[in-house]
Amino acid sequence: MEFATWNALLFWGLVGACFAHEMWRTRDNPTKRSMICAAYRKAFPVVLRNQHIVFGIFSILHRVLEPSYSYQWFRFGLAGSCLAVSSTVLHEFVHSTPWLYANVHKVHHEFVTPNALASEYNSVADTLMNFINTAMVIYIAQIPRELVYMFLAFTNFSVVLSHHPPWPGSKHHLVHHTKGKVNFNFSLTPLVDDIMGTRAPTPTVA
Ligand SMILES: [Zn+2]
Ligand SMILES: [Zn+2]
User: Fold this and answer.
1) CA 194 to chain centre
2) Where does residue 45 rank: exposed (0-12), middle (13-18), buried (19+ CB within 10 A)?
3) DSSP per residue over 39-57, as a string?
4) Of the ligands numbered here, which is closest to the C-alpha atom of 111?
5) 191 class by beta-carbon count within 10 Å (0-12 exposed, 13-18 middle, 19+ buried)
6) pLDDT one digit per residue (tens) for the chain, 206 residues
7) Centre of ligand 1 from the C-alpha of residue 141, in Å
8) Which among 170, 159, 156 is positioned nearest to 113, based on CA atoms?
9) 108 Cα: distance to centroid of ligand 1 (angstroms)
10) What is the Å distance from ligand 2's center to 63 Cα?
């Protein structure tokens, strides 16, 4: 199976499961249910377009990429850590540069309450930026081909589930969405924000 197919299957599978979960959770509340459906409908065409962009580039990369077969797990871990940090730095960068926020990242924040599908609800520039970042990390780390599948599973799970409340890990990123043009919680993992000093201040009891 090509990386592109693997990535697409994982993404849509996860989103489908999350959507089914939402429908099940709101089975007694038709108003909430139609709001969720409307939100998914809004995100669908944009995400479909972005997934096609990624699918196309992946297919080309699959043919030109000749990753090393040396089976080194530390590269996998290193790549994971590098991606966690580089994506946080990039995310902070697009928030702190007004032009970039307005033209690149604002679209993603149209969802104040995100959902699984909205995890990839991005402008084309944002989609490309994230994709290039991930592809560069995979390429530079020379992750063995077999492990790239696992790496993509890892990134898909963390991106999709961090936008799917009530998943416990989504709390951290939910703050990033609900507070508007915020300047904290740029990472999907609190640990990276702690290291970079960009974690949302915990509200003090008055
Ligand atoms: Zn953001
Ligand atoms: Zn988000």
Assistant:
1) 19
2) exposed
3) HHHHHHHHHHHHHHHHHHH
4) 2
5) exposed
6) 777 788 889 999 999 999 999 999 999 999 999 999 999 999 999 999 998 888 888 777 766 555 544 446 778 888 999 999 999 999 999 998 999 999 999 999 999 988 999 999 999 999 999 999 999 999 888 887 878 999 999 999 999 999 998 888 888 899 898 876 777 889 988 888 888 888 887 654 44
7) 26
8) 170
9) 7
10) 31
Between the CA of 101 and the centroid of ligand 2 the distance, in Å, is: 13
Task: Measure the CA–CA gap between 124 and 47, rounded to whole angstroms.
Answer: 10
**Model pTM?**
0.70
Give dist(CA 49, CA 163) in Å, integer: 19
Instruction: Name the closest ligand to CA 164.
Output: 2
